[in-house]
What does this fold into?
Amino acid sequence: MTTPLRIALIIGSTREGRFGPTVARWFEAVAGRRTDIELTVADLADADLPAHWTSDLSPRGRAFVEQLAGADAYVVLTPEYNHSFPASLKQAIDTAGRVWRRKPVGFVSYGGLSGGLRAVEQLRPVFAELHATTVRETVSFHQFPFDEAGQPRDHEGAEQAATVLLDDLLWWGRALRTARGNDEAWSEAA
Ligand SMILES: Cc1cc2nc3c(=O)[nH]c(=O)nc-3n(C[C@H](O)[C@H](O)[C@H](O)COP(=O)(O)O)c2cc1C
It folds into this structure.
């Protein structure tokens, strides 16, 4: 059997009372029903990253970057803040620097009318600059369609969208994992 793809789910917002963990718990449960992936949650609220870019990180900051470095692929969970993504997320992407190289990134977004899709579209060129591949399929939640139990009201539709995203990420993740393993120049540079 192929080794499961290691995916880090990054919770991109950090503010008190944020909605992100509700979406993250649902996504984690969906991913947990699969045997072809292993998903861990990387929560920016726990990462203790400094407000400015520096290579001098706290032990928790270093552990966060190491967690990301150990993943084969990423799912970035982002809300929309003023038609873009949160500053906390940009800081984490910049700080983690080289971990993204030659790996795929998928998105789960949420927000008002646009469901966070404007944030997603602005994240794509950022990841391209970092030599990551962003995958086409996305999951997006418009106007917080979750019930009191923290489940999407359209449970089936949401789960189907998550499955399509994870399948897409799995294809790219396996292909790029193999390519990285076969590329001596890449491993020397990494
Ligand atoms: C500073 C700020 C700006 C926002 N701007 C937008 C926006 O441009 N479009 C939108 O659909 N929602 C916007 N929202 C609503 C957020 O997407 C929504 O509150 C979401 O829950 C924020 O994610 P969080 O709860 O994980 O922090 C904004 C929220 C904040 C705090």
Notes: The chain has one domain: 5-189. The CA atoms of residues 114 and 142 lie 6 Å apart. The pocket of flavin mononucleotide is lined by residues 13, 15, 18-20, 79-83, 111-114 (CB under 6 Å). The first strand starts at residue 5 and ends at 11.
